[in-house]
Amino acid sequence: MPNSKQPTEKPQPKKRGPNGGARPGAGRPAFVPTASERKQVEALSGYGIPQEQIAMLVRDGIHLETLKAHFAQQLGTGKAKANAQVGKTLFQRAIGGDTTAMIWWSKTQMKWTEVQRHELTGADGGPIQTQAQVVEIPAPIADVAQWAASAKARTDGNPDSDG
Length: 163
Known about the structure:
It is built from 6 helices and no strands. The protein has helices at residues 35-46, 51-57, 64-70, 72-95, 99-108, 144-155.
């Protein structure tokens, strides 16, 4: 009887991508931002829109980490350009004589401050008078009206007495 068993070869593993894992070409394609999206992100960042909301407006929504990874420059330059424009306008108003703009500029850019000092005194400028009163509360109070009557009786109707 001839030997019908043929030597079997060991199965070859599937080809993997350069980083291991699934086969090449499998999965979602890499995110590549368009010029229009870059312009949109820069503008929204300049308007002060939070990054979470900007991420929802790119395509049909992207992950916040994707936004930060692919649009970092636009997020920074959008905010910087907006701040520069507001600063320019504020400066022009300040040097044009706008008192409010001048005050705001001097406080924020020149570190000027206003100091206000408040003093509290008693009657005729004397010391503040304080008075403490101890009230005994029986525990538990079953009837508030009964407690109020007993408190009144202890003070003889005089709230300033020591009881």
